[in-house]
Design a protein that fits this description.
Elements (H helix, E strand, L loop, with lengths): L17 H20 L12 H13 L2 H10 L53 H15 L3 H17 L5 H18 L1 H7 L6 H26 L2 E9 L5 E11 L2 E11 L6 H14 L7 E6 L3 H4 L5 H8 L4 E4 L1 H8 L5 H18 L2 H13 L17 H11 L1 H10 L5 H4 L2 H24 L6 H23 L7 H9 L5 H21 L16
Parallel strand pairs: 1-4, 4-5
Antiparallel strand pairs: 1-2, 2-3
Helix pairs in contact: 1-2, 5-8, 6-7, 9-11, 12-21, 13-15, 13-18, 15-18, 18-20, 19-21
């Protein structure tokens, strides 16, 4: 290998000793040097492996005694720590003579010396004008116009907002923009869009930079606010990974603002100690202090509100002034779960009917075809999910609206579940559950949203509790006009309200009791009513 090129490879099938190495130099290196350099001079450089030193020892043994003595005299004045000379030859003489002998035999264990660096590098002089020209070309190719760079950030922001794959920028957005510009404005403006960088890596880097900038702005605003409140929850996602989600509320420019502070994974167990350690480390990393936190809102899990080992107990140890609150929406969802045995049987049977159709792909396709032929408003049922608070109301309402289609389908499939949809009493209770859960879902949705406060949410809960009292009284009087689907079904089938009045009254009273349990009057924030006038 040389600056003039690379010679042929030499495959060695035996152990390399001095004789073999000499043959390699004679039959491979020298012919290759003739081909690469011709009559020009060149420098041959080699390292000092055992085969080379053994060769020198062997040649030294064959030397006459007087030559060996002369060689020894040449090495008497050399210091012991001086590195040995590397054998080298210059010019055509290198092809006719052997490498010079070593000044002294090498030891078994060679030591590294700084002087070896002098023999391991070569210096190549480059034309300075040519180098400057290449530098200008490189700068020209890597420079992006300011407008193109800003457009790249704008597109990356839209991709992040719509939660699309990062490669959609170069595979769809950019080609579509160029095609539209080419049709509407010509080739000149279309060519300018080619300068916008939208590769997969560029979009990912832009999103990361914008996210980091937003996070820095958020932390800076929270620090300037002086006071902040936290709301957090721990949940397991579809990949069985525990996630801790934390939101922060702070004052900025005289207004309350809510932002997501961070979302992080919880490794191992999810006890109150684990959640506190993760939360505390994250707050310290961002430079936030517990002394500036005034309130923490969580759900009612034992890991959160445990008095001894929960998150509440650990936080109060470092910040006794904090006020812990139980999430109002979570309390409303717990209060709505109450069902007596009669209505619980209707709900369980409804879930079985839905699962019979939705869990089998063939049944799903056949039922969808039936709905199309009957001109139904909906083409399928909804699966029930216990962790989704609005699931029960949506599932029951869809089943009630498609009750005729479901009954026909189950009858064709000879399923015993069809008997329930043919029973007026069972369908009556289904209609009631559909109505009451629709109203409970409406309350749940109204409690959601940004920048709400405990006064506003408590008023809504108390208003719904008063509605429950009024509905119970009207049912006792035999009036069910507040449940339109139930009233319509009973009128169509000439059913009496007395057949279901006792069941509805008992359920409404049970709901009212559970609302009083999770929203006691003693916890009502009446002491903060003066804030309403501000």
């Amino acid at each position: 290998m040389s600056s003039a090129g690379v010679g042929p490879q030499c495959f060695i099938h035996s152990r390399v000793n001095a004789v073999v190495y000499q043959e390699i130099l004679e039959y491979f290196m020298l012919p290759s040097a003739d081909k690469l350099y011709g009559d020009a001079d060149f420098l041959f450089q080699q390292d000092l492996p055992i085969a080379r030193t053994a060769k020198e020892k062997e040649k030294g043994a064959e030397m006459p005694a007087d030559e060996r003595a002369g060689s020894a005299k040449n090495t008497e004045g050399r210091e012991e720590d001086e590195p040995p000379r590397l054998p080298s030859t210059t010019g055509r003489a290198a092809r006719q003579t052997h490498a010079p002998q070593m000044d002294h035999p090498s030891s078994k264990a060679r030591k590294y010396r700084e002087e070896y660096i002098n023999y391991g590098f070569t210096c190549i002089v480059i034309n300075q004008k040519e180098l400057q020209g290449q530098k200008k070309v490189l700068i020209k190719q890597t420079t992006i116009p300011t407008k193109a760079q800003r457009a790249s950030y704008e597109v990356a922001y839209l991709i992040a907002q719509t939660k699309k794959p990062h490669n959609i920028g170069e595979t769809l957005i950019k080609p579509a923009a160029i095609a539209m510009s080419h049709v509407m404005h010509g080739d000149k403006l279309a060519a300018e869009l080619e300068q916008v960088p939208l590769s997969d890596g560029t979009v990912s880097r832009r999103i990361t930079e914008m996210a980091q900038d937003i996070k820095c702005q958020l932390i800076d605003r929270v620090k300037k606010s002086g006071r902040y409140a936290l709301q957090l929850d721990e949940s397991t996602d579809v990949s069985s990974t525990a996630q801790l989600l934390v939101f922060v509320r702070y004052i900025f420019e005289g207004k309350l603002n809510e932002e997501m502070l961070f979302c992080t994974q919880l490794e191992g167990s999810c006890t109150g100690e684990d959640i506190f350690n993760k939360l505390d480390s994250k707050l310290k990393d961002e430079g936030l202090s517990w002394g500036e936190c005034i309130s923490v809102c969580t759900d009612g899990a034992g890991a959160m509100l445990g008095k001894k080992k929960g998150l509440k107990a650990r936080v109060l140890q470092v910040a006794p002034h904090l006020n812990f609150t139980h999430c109002i929406i979570h309390r409303e969802a717990l209060a709505c779960k109450t069902l007596n045995a009669e209505f619980k049987h209707v709900l369980d049977t409804s879930v079985k009917i839905v699962n019979y159709i939705k869990s089998r792909p063939l049944n799903t396709r056949l039922f969808s075809t039936l709905c199309n032929e009957m001109g139904s408003e909906h083409k399928g049922l909804l699966l029930h999910t216990e962790v989704r608070w609005l699931s029960r109301g949506n599932v029951l309402r869809r089943l009630y609206e498609l009750r005729d289609e479901v009954r026909i389908f189950l009858t064709d499939q000879r399923s015993p579940l069809a008997e329930h949809l043919s029973d007026p009493d069972w369908v009556t209770r289904l209609a009631y559950l559909s109505c009451i859960f629709e109203k409970l879902n409406g309350l749940n949705v109204s409690l959601q949203g940004e920048n709400t406060n405990i006064l506003y949410l408590n008023d809504k809960v108390q208003a719904f509790a008063r509605k429950l009292v009024r509905w119970r009284e009207r049912v006792e009087m035999g009036r069910i006009d507040m449940f339109p689907e139930l009233e319509e079904f009973m009128e169509e089938n000439a059913l009496s309200v007395n057949s279901i009045k006792a069941s509805i009254t008992a359920h409404l009273q049970s709901l009212l009791d559970h609302f009083h349990k999770y929203f006691p009057e003693g916890d009502a924030p009446d002491q903060y009513d003066w804030i309403r006038s501000l």
